[in-house]
Amino acid sequence: MEVDERSSGEPGASAGAGRDAGPGSLPRAELDLSQFLPYRLNRLADRISDELERMYAERYDINVAQWRVLAWLSHCDELTAKKICTYTNMDKARVSRAVQALEDRGLIYREPSVHDQRVHDLHLTPAGEELLASLVPEAQAWEAELVATLSVGEYRDLFNAMGKLERQLERIGQG
Amino acid sequence: MEVDERSSGEPGASAGAGRDAGPGSLPRAELDLSQFLPYRLNRLADRISDELERMYAERYDINVAQWRVLAWLSHCDELTAKKICTYTNMDKARVSRAVQALEDRGLIYREPSVHDQRVHDLHLTPAGEELLASLVPEAQAWEAELVATLSVGEYRDLFNAMGKLERQLERIGQG
DNA sequence: GTAATATAGTTTCTTATGAAACCATTTGTC
DNA sequence: GACAAATGGTTTCATAAGAAACTATATTAC
Questions:
Q1: Chain A interface, mutation test: which of B26, B44, B86, most A Cβ atoms within 10 Å?
Q2: Backbone phi, then psi, for B63, in 5-degree steps?
Q3: What single DSSP character describes residue A89?
């Protein structure tokens, strides 16, 4: 019932009819959002994120920022807040709050780094590992269902395209 | 210098090494975020959104919500807040605020619908059209630069994949 | 060694956002 | 036509997030 690329509500239908036949009909700047990559990508990502967030929140009472910290820890076993910032593109305040919340709940623990007193090394606690052991398969199953309509090739190509876009974004940002 | 699908900082490198050789080495749930679609999609969309937002904000002092309203109006010439909500997936409060801000700045105007007194029909003012005439080409140029590394086929496939994912999301949501 | 600068992380402040309450109008039911 | 439900939109309230100020440690220049 929602909007997809072709049946995007009015736009397809009224794009022509909508043209103002009125007085000063200057050549109107028109943007077809359904064909505008940033918009499409954003809306899709938002919807996916909403779904997952609901799942995390309902069943485990963690938010997206916390989830990301946990997921990276599942991967690295030892991390610092700074690294999480760069990996996830999240603000350091946001990471700081997520880390604190997770520590309060006993899902991770911090120890001051031996080399640098400013830094805290982050680790999962057993409770944290346990939570992940339950959450991760669920998340993966959900993802699998989401991409079920894509062929293996389409799936691979999608990741390739995202990789290219990320690299290009880097390039643009610097240039 | 940032994270891309293969050189994602620690994960690739320490995934193996990070394994805890310690005592109770239970089979650890591990999630490779760089291969997790929701995460990748979200991070990419966020970065793109950040870039564009900076552009809108710096040069035209409008935020994403306002931009979306304007863009849809460029397309439809006559809209209601409700429709914008469904097209953009934005909360109605957010849309309401965006519309109000745009009206205050004289970029759009509202008139009560003849058929339904609850509804306001939204239209661009000449000033709004003028702003779009300047902004839209810039946005399109930026998008063109972003996707410059994709072939025509890759670009088309990307949109196809997004379409499939959106439809699947619908299906999952309902089921 | 000491002063200046940079860095990791926290806290404070402000703003944006979503949820829910709310108001006005419209639609449906009897 | 009157009353109940639904709908479009706004406002209020609570919360999350980013910006900037701040603290503590580390690094660099001299």
A1: B44
A2: -100, 180
A3: T
B35-83 confidence digits (pLDDT tens)? 999 999 999 999 999 899 988 898 899 999 999 999 999 988 889 999 9
Asked whether the beta carbons of residue B47 and residue A169 sit closer than 8 angstroms, the reply is yes
CATH number of B34-174: 1.10.10.10
Classify each residue of A7-19 as buried b or exposed e, where b means 16 or more C-beta atoms within 10 Å of its C-beta: ebbbbeeeeeebe
Give the closest-approach CA distance of B102 to chain A in angstroms: 17
Beta strands B108-112; B120-124: pairing state = antiparallel
pLDDT at position A25 over 70: no
Round to whole Å and give the CA distance between A103 and B126: 54
User: Strand A120-124 to strand B120-124: parallel, antiparallel, or no bridges (unpaired)?
Assistant: unpaired
Decide: A46 and A63 in contact? Cβ < 8 Å.
Answer: no
Q: CB–CB of A129/B28 below 8 Å? A: yes
**In what helix (H) or strand (E) does residue B108 lie, and over which residues does it extend?**
strand B108-112
The class that CATH gives domain A37-149 is mainly alpha
Q: Closest protein residue to D18 using CA and C1' atoms? A: A91
Domain coordinates of chain B in residue numbers?
Answer: 34-174
Determine whether the distance from the CB of A108 to the nearest atom of strand C is below 7 Å.
no
Q: Considering only CB atoms, which chain B residues are within 8 Å of A150?
A: 161, 164-165
Give pLDDT tens digits for A134-160. Answer: 999 999 999 999 999 999 999 999 999
Q: How many other C-beta atoms lie within 10 A of the C-beta of residue B54? A: 10
What distance in Å separates the CA atoms of residue A138 and residue B16, rounded to the nearest whole number?
23
In whole angstroms, D13 C1' to B92 CA is 16
Residue B126 backbone phi and psi in degrees, to 5: -55, -40
